[in-house]
Amino acid sequence: MTSKNRVSARLGAIAPSATLAVDAKAKALKAAGRPVIGFGAGEPDFPTPQHIVEAAIEAARDPKNHRYTPASGLPELRQAIADKTKRDSGYEIDPATTLVTNGGKQAVFQAFAAILDPGDEVILPAPYWTTYPEAIGLTGATTVEVFAGADQDYLVTVEQLEAARTDATKALLFCSPSNPTGAVYSRAQTQAIGEWALEHGIWVITDEIYEHLLYDGAEFTPMLSVVPDLADTCIVLNGVAKTFAMTGWRVGWMVGPQDVIKAATNFQSHLTSNVANVSQRAAIAALTGPMDEVEKMREAFDRRRRTMVSMLSEIDGFQVPTPTGAFYAYPSVEGWIGRTVRGREIGSSIDLAAVILEEAEVAVVPGEAFGPSGYARLSYALGDEDLAEGVGRIQALLAE
């Protein structure tokens, strides 16, 4: 039996998560005693706020949380999501149109699985989060990349989207604030894109998980708040991971039309059943509790953002658009393609990332993980001292 038919073509075609791979390599080197600083994973370095942890401890003691609950999620959590949507996004949803998922990633996969068939096309603005094309590919649909570079602040235009549209276009993935670039679409840009999708009968899957992480006066614009008529062809993805430093708790959700949510719920009932009840109780505490700790984390990210952008901008050959959301910087490193670092020729951003890791002991994610070569993603969700030390090492290496 050959390796070709030992593993299914569908799963064999999936590439590992580049961001998690970089993070794992950095941690392995660190465990081996090397002083590696990792800018790879998009994970807040703060503990989950204490009132959320206490709610989980209390929930773990209650036997009712030791059993199965509805696959769609605890009714109390679905109501909390509806209340939070009204509070933060300005429009009302029915809790019945909400599905609680095992983290935001499951929501992404189920959203695409619910509406896509082989032969469909999905327009994916690039740079994009590394998981999107893998989720699209599993459905048999095709990803159509639309690239906006540093000269556009990584924001695609309606004209670019229209140029990519075909009769097979089924959906658009929209992510603002963006992973990996930190770019934030304005209200006018969001509305124009939503109205374009509505005009052409294109689904919009809008990933809003970084909604609370904004800087320099940037504003989060929920797609359905500016184009409410999209409600029948729009799926909203969100979760508690980034806002509340709850990446390990694995609670996300998707909101959409009743038939789509029903189909995704049926799928999840066979796939994973319900999300862990203790985590769901913790998510209720997060969504209904105070936001003081969230603001403190945002202020820390803002401080680190300014430090990182300033230091990266000092490196010859780097072009660094200022991110106004999430917790990533995404410099263009195209100025280093063709140069040599310590005797090694740089032919791509993969090459540059490898040299930085091996020579400066700093882990960054190359642009190939998110689209075209010539870029790098650095998360500033790590301590101030490590951030300054890590970028300082890159500065020193590339100044030689």
Commentary on this structure:
42% of the residues lie in helices and 14% in strands. The protein is α/β, with parallel strands linked by helices and 400 residues long. The protein folds into 2 domains: 3-47 and 293-398, Aspartate Aminotransferase, domain 1, CATH 3.90.1150.10; 67-288, Type I PLP-dependent aspartate aminotransferase-like (Major domain) (Aspartate Aminotransferase, domain 2). A 7-stranded mixed beta sheet has the order 2-8-7-6-5-3-4, with helices on both faces. Strand 10 and strand 11 (344-345) form a beta hairpin. The chain is globular, with a radius of gyration of 21 Å.
Helix content: 40-55%
Order of helices and strands: HHHEHHEHEHEHEHEHEEHHHEEEHEEEH
Discrete helix count:
15
Q: Mean of the pLDDT scores?
A: 95
Provide the CATH architecture of the largest domain: 3-Layer(aba) Sandwich
Beta strand count? 14
